[in-house]
Structure formats: C-alpha cells, structure tokens
Amino acid sequence: MSSSLQIFGPGPSGLSAGEKKVVERLTAAAKLIVPLYEAQKNPKYAGANFYPPDATREELQKAAKKNPSILSPYTFVERNRAGKLVVVPYSKKFRKELTRVAKLLKEAAALSEDKAFKEYLVARAKDLLKDNFDKSNTLWLKTNASKIGCAIGPFDRFLDRHFHQKRAYTAWVGVLSKERMTEVSRMRTLILTSIPTFLPGAKKTTVSQIRVRAEDTMLLAGLDADYLFMSNNFPSSADISLIKKHGTMSTVFLPMAELRVEKWMQPIFQQVFDKKTQEGRTVSEMQDALVRISVIDEMRRSLVRYDDAATRLQEYFAYIDEVYGDILTIKSAGYLYLKNAITEKELEAMVLAEICQALYYLAAFDKRRRFENLLYGYAAFLDALLSGGGLEETEGGLRLNLQKALLCTDRLVRTFEYYLALGTREEIKGFFECLDTEGIFSKFHPHFQALPQIGG
C-alpha cells in the first residue's frame, strides 16, 4: 500500500445503515486524492513538482512580480514550448479526477441526514472545481458536532520548500469519539483559561473560536497519511482573514497514536533511552501522551498566531511552525500539571513522546527527504535539551531530567516566539546557519542504525 494512504481497521461500530453508505462514498472520494498528492510530491526538488526542476527561486520570484499566480497556492508552474513560465490551476490539471471526487461528495451529501455536514459536502464538491475553498471551509467549521468527519482538498504547504506556498492534497474520514471528547473538552477549558502573552509590536491574530474533535479515523490519504500526522488544524495558517472571522477546528486522528507508537516511537524509546528512563513505561501511556499532545498542540497553535509570520519568514516559517507548536505544548503541559489536570508521570510521558517524535524526524530524514523543513526545528529542540541538561548522556543511553527539560524548552519557546512575532527572514536564517545539524545528527546516528524500518 502507498505511504500516501493509511487505512485503520474496520472502523467504529454504531453507524446506521445510512451513515455507512455516507462513509463508503467519502472513503472512495478520499482514495482518489492519493494520485493527486503523488503528482505533487517530489522530494528530489525543493519545489517538489509544483515548479519546473530547472527553475531557480530567483527566476520564480522575478516571474511572480509580473504574474502573481506563479505563487498562487493552487497552481502548478510549467514551461511552455518557448521556455516561458506559465501556470496551470489545480482544477484544470486535475479536472477529470476532481469531477469524480465531487460526484462522490454530492452522493454522500444526498445520503446524509446531518444538515450541517450535508451543506459542507455540497460546497466542498463545488470548491474543488474552482480552487477557492473559503465557502466550504466556513461550512466545515460548523460540523464540529457532526458524527461523521471528513476533510478533503489541498491545504498544507510542507511540500513546497521553495516558498512554502503551494498546497498539497490531503483527506481523511472518521467518526467522532464521544469517549475521548470528554477529556478533550476538559483540557480545552483549561487551556483557553490560560491567556497567552504576545510580544509588544507583534501583529497577533485573534481567533474567534477554537474547536477540537477527536475522531476514530478510518482513512487518511495524501499528505496527512504520508507524514503520519496525528492531527490537523484548518483553515491553513495562511488563511488569516478566514481564521479571524470564523475560527479554527482541529481534528485528532486517534488510531494514528497506536500506529506511531508501535511503528517507531516505542522502538526509538527502547533503543535510545536508558533503563531507568524506560522503567515503568507502558505503550498505552505513550499513546495517551500522544493524544494529549495533539489536542494541546492544535489549540495552542490557534491561540498563538501572528498575521504576518508566514510572509515575514517565508520558507523558514515551516522550519519552526511545527516544532514551536510541540515545544509550546510541553510548556502548556507544565501548566496543566500545576493545575492538577495531569500527573507528573503523565507530564513526563508527554515530554518523552515529544523527544521521540523529534528523534524520528532526524532518523527518517535520509529516507524521507521531504521532512527537511521539519528536521531543522526538531534538531534545534534536541540541541537545546542536550546543551541544557534536559537530556543526559549515560553509558546505558539518554536519561531525561524533567525539570531541566522544562527549563530548556521554555528558553527555546521564547526564542522561536520572537522569530514568529517580530523576526526577519535573515535573522532566522542566521539562527539555523549557526545550528550544527550534522553534529546533532551524529550524536544519535549510532542508535538509528539499529532501527532499519525507521524511515517507513
């Protein structure tokens, strides 16, 4: 099976006959997204397949001054016979495939008895064919209480390492988990009462409403499947005006916690950490930690946003956006511990899980080059822990010093917060040029050699 498609078991029970038919149409539509995503990705080039492989960043920027659609989120850039750069909208390049997807979405809408979900599906079917998703995104935000969940379309920008502009196709289908939503709602209330601070002069984004769903995901396709993401937050961080007016909604993919822990987090944990750190740790604790991390991460990502961060930092925005959410999650977890919402052992499990995630991106980089944008931020996180004593090197492996890890993380949060709030592209470029990524990698490489499947 392609890495761009993840299917999780038979799916949750409790669906009516009509709901099962809706899910059948949605999963069929989601699977059609896979070839579209694979036509976009190409880890050999910084611009993936969005731009001609021989086109330099400078050439593209110059052309975009005359033709702004060169850097539109929803266009491919190609050369015509004369060698001139021209654009092809997604909806034109994939017209045949998107028409089939839209047809399935309309069929699912006709079968659905959920009014809000029905309206969203109809709108998304139309938007897929015109490369403007504002209407369907707005309606999607109103489906936060819907039993069935589905997102489908081009959203995240990770593949475009040139400009962090072009959006990659992704899709998922799942069912709301009432069991998990009880804890999610409790954590949401606590996080929303901890008001974040913003640096003076920063153009902060005020999000109107923050929603969170925990789903028993049945299928992931496209980018979310390929990157093995635990969650996603829509609308995209680039859609600031939409976020300000209508808010955000995060979806946590619950089965991904089991897959991540089993496939690579547990092997990393057992290989890299010493016996003392491993003592008393269970697989279920690590899975629970991942779910808590995802909920807090996505909420904090909505609470702490800056209007101009992506524009100011350009391609370097992707270097820290994800890892900033992760390390801010560790800081927030410390707050939850002080509020007696989680135990010290649960806090420690969350820190360990975040470290294992960072180690995964380092270990997988050779086989999955598209992780490059994520690699540098996580390398900075690991470097901060090693240099600050949060991770101690022993003969038996790494040992976590929880108190020092929290202090190290807090310092890095402040550094990245400055870049996101006020920093320039040149400043953050200088930060990463001074980071000894190869040296950091070399410290862990002996451990990675014992993990042959880590790149999968």
Describe this structure as you would to a colleague.
It is a single chain. By secondary structure, the protein is an alpha+beta fold. It has two domains: 173 residues, 2-Layer Sandwich (Fructose-1,6-Bisphosphatase, Chain A, domain 1); 270 residues, no CATH class. It is 55% helix and 14% strand. It has 20 helices and ten strands. The strands form three sheets. Strands 1, 4, 5, 6, 7 and 8 form a six-stranded mixed beta sheet that branches. Helix 11 crosses helix 13, helix 13 packs across helix 15 and helix 15 runs antiparallel to helix 16. The chain starts with a strand and ends in an 8-residue tail after the last helix.
End-to-end separation: 12 Å
Gyration radius, in Å: 21 Å
The level of helicity is 55-70%
| Mean of residue pLDDT values | 91
- Major beta sheet summary: 6 strands, mixed
* Global geometry: globular
Total strand segments: 10
Tally of contiguous helical segments: 20
Low-confidence stretches: none
What is the string of SSEs from the N terminus onward?
EHHHEEHHHHEEHEHEHEHHHHHHHEEHHH
Number of domain units: 2
Strand content: 5-15%
- Derived from helix and strand composition plus strand pairing, the structural class reads alpha+beta
